[in-house]
Write a structure and sequence with these properties.
single chain; 5-stranded mixed β-sheet; binds protoporphyrin IX containing FE; 549 residues
Length: 549
């Protein structure tokens, strides 16, 4: 029984429920409510039974075909590993145990509903991540709940549609473009650091890194994407609140199996809140895109945004193209560009894919360095050496390659605390992995970034923070797929250079200006859409004087 058939049954069920509810309202004055209810219940019951038969059939098929993979013990044959995949500290420790026991992969059954292959070894994930995009599909179980927010964007599209978008979007991430954003990263860090100095002076030196840094990365992204100065680091904004709300609601929905069903979710209070937040976010993006399109038609060229980070004179001189400008101008080989709706979806995706991930990356680097004062001092010395004799503290694009030790510390943190813990895929044909094993077409493959980064076969003492692992000498002979915080292959992260540049600027400036020590609060990891810490990631800040050259 194929997935598509089940999707049809689901769609019919959804539709039917809608129709019945509508019909009920229309006919209730005319006929007995109880007859109508009985009729509805019968039809729904029939369709549900059909759905269950399909599920059990497909479950049996996958169970048979996945026998070549080790299967961790289950509570019973029907429920499988349902409930054992937890988004908590204990859930991550369970993955450690799985990796130690099975070393490369295992099968996983979420009741009779879904079966997965979990992979956590470079040799196993490499053929999957490098597979052509034409046979790779983003599964609906993990990505579907993002669709109402992000639409048919780069992250969620497949096949030819994805290839076209990726071709059109790639130039926007060329380093010639990205180097202009470094000024914005400096400026957003300056705002956050001024706030920190103020808080430390008021005696509030213990701060949750996540909340400050998320606002700072959103601030940067709003400027780079829309040239919008939201002032969000200083005052609240409806748009920012809506973005936070959507991220939380997506996670909540994943955890509630009944809410997986559209027809129930959109009637629930959470579904209503999701709709409301989506309309705020979409309204904002749509307005910017439409205004810029109008300017483009009117003036014949995009109204490049004014660089708001300099003085009045500078503002007049410098004009930097933002992502919206670039997307409006991009054309494929036939001269066709992106429509307004497509640009809106991509901009929403940059905001989603770019702010929390980078904030998580920065926060955990600062956390790891707070635990290792020796590495922190060495990074600080590197930044101070670089900036000595300079008139300003601003870092340039060219400076970023002069921070080798800081970069090693960042990479080791992305290994130990990867912001994205897994990506999932389906394939339109059987996929061979080592050991003569075959992943059947249509199975969900969960490529565990966390598991690969914590695999003791690849990384001895995987829980130890040791930046020297990324010394070029020590990296020789390591698999190209041992370190994959940005995934890899055709569907890797399009924003990775942007993210690495922002990470380097923010970490370098933070260490120059502050000493960080642990906040005295127990840290329990929280793998949500990105890796967070339960109750926040608290560090103590000590303001440092600028070194006298
Ligand atoms: C430390 C920061 C970041 C990390 C760890 C990260 C990680 C990832 C990962 C693992 C993927 C693959 C997702 C999948 O296969 O489902 C991905 C895809 C993507 N990322 Fe990032 N990302 C980061 C920053 C950014 C930024 C700054 C942007 C944009 C400004 C961005 C935009 C995207 C987009 C559009 C995709 C989809 C690419 C495609 O399917 O072709 N990311 N990212």
């Amino acid at each position: 029984m194929t997935e598509s058939r089940m999707a049809v049954i689901d769609a019919v069920l959804d539709r039917l429920l809608d129709e019945l509810l509508g019909l009920g309202r229309l006919l209730s004055p005319l006929c007995s409510l109880s007859v109508l209810l009985q009729l509805s219940a019968l039809v729904v019951l029939l369709l549900l039974s059909l759905r269950v038969v399909c599920l059990l059939w497909s479950h049996a098929q996958f169970t048979r075909r996945l026998r070549c993979f080790s299967k961790p013990p289950t509570q019973n044959w029907l429920m499988g590993h349902l409930g054992e995949m937890r988004s908590t500290e204990e859930g991550l420790q369970a993955v450690d145990q799985l990796v130690r026991t099975y070393s490369h992969s295992c099968s996983w059954f979420l009741g009779p509903f879904y079966s997965l292959v979990r992979l956590f070894h470079p040799d196993y994930i490499k053929p999957l991540l490098l597979a052509p995009a034409s046979i790779t599909v983003k599964d609906e179980l993990f990505y579907g709940f993002l669709r109402p927010w992000l639409g048919q964007s780069l992250l969620l599209s497949n096949g030819e549609d994805w290839s076209r978008r990726r071709r059109l979007l790639t130039p926007a991430f060329h380093f010639d473009i990205l180097k202009n954003y470094v000024k914005i990263f400096n400026h957003s860090s300056d705002i956050m650091h001024s706030k920190w100095r103020r808080l430390v002076a008021e005696g509030e030196s213990c701060q949750d890194m996540f909340s400050h840094i998320s606002l700072m990365t959103l601030d940067s992204l709003l400027r780079c994407t829309f040239s919008y100065n939201s002032n969000c680091q200083e005052s609240s904004s409806e748009y920012i609140a809506a973005i936070f709300e959507l991220s939380t609601l997506v996670i909540e929905r994943r955890g509630r199996i009944l809410h997986h069903w559209d027809c129930l979710y959109w009637r629930s209070p959470e579904g209503q809140r999701f709709k409301q937040a989506c309309s705020v976010v979409h309204g904002f993006t749509r307005t910017v895109v439409q205004e810029r399109r109008a300017q483009l038609l009117h003036r014949g060229e995009p109204e490049s945004h004014t660089d708001t980070t300099g003085g009045e004179e500078e503002k007049k001189k410098k004009r930097v193209a933002d992502f919206i400008d670039l997307l409006l101008l991009s054309k494929d080989e036939d001269g066709h560009g992106l429509t307004d709706e497509e640009i809106k979806a991509e901009a929403d995706t940059f905001m989603f894919g770019g702010h929390d991930t980078t904030a998580s990356g920065i926060s955990w680097v600062l956390y790891n360095l707070s635990q290792h004062q020796d590495y922190q001092d060495r990074c600080r010395a590197e930044v101070n050496d670089l900036l000595q004799d300079r008139k300003t503290e601003d870092l340039d694009w060219e400076d970023l390659s002069s921070l080798p030790f800081t970069t090693m510390c960042i990479k080791e943190s992305l290994r130990l605390h990867s912001p994205v813990s897994a990506v999932t895929r389906q394939y339109t044909k059987d996929m061979a992995v080592p050991g003569g094993r075959v992943i059947p077409q249509g199975s969900i493959c969960l490529v565990s970034i966390y598991g690969t980064h914590h695999n003791p076969e690849i990384w001895p003492d995987p829980d130890v923070y040791n930046p020297m692992r990324f010394d070029p000498e020590n990296s020789k002979g390591r698999s190209s797929h041992a370190f994959i915080p940005f995934s890899s292959g055709p569907r890797n992260c399009i924003g990775q250079k942007f993210a690495m540049a922002e990470l380097r600027v923010v970490v370098a400036l933070t260490l120059r200006r502050f000493r960080l020590t642990p906040g005295g609060v127990e840290v329990r990891r929280l793998p949500h859409l990105v890796l967070r810490a339960e109750g926040g990631l608290w560090l103590t800040l000590e303001t440092l004087e600028a070194p006298q050259d």
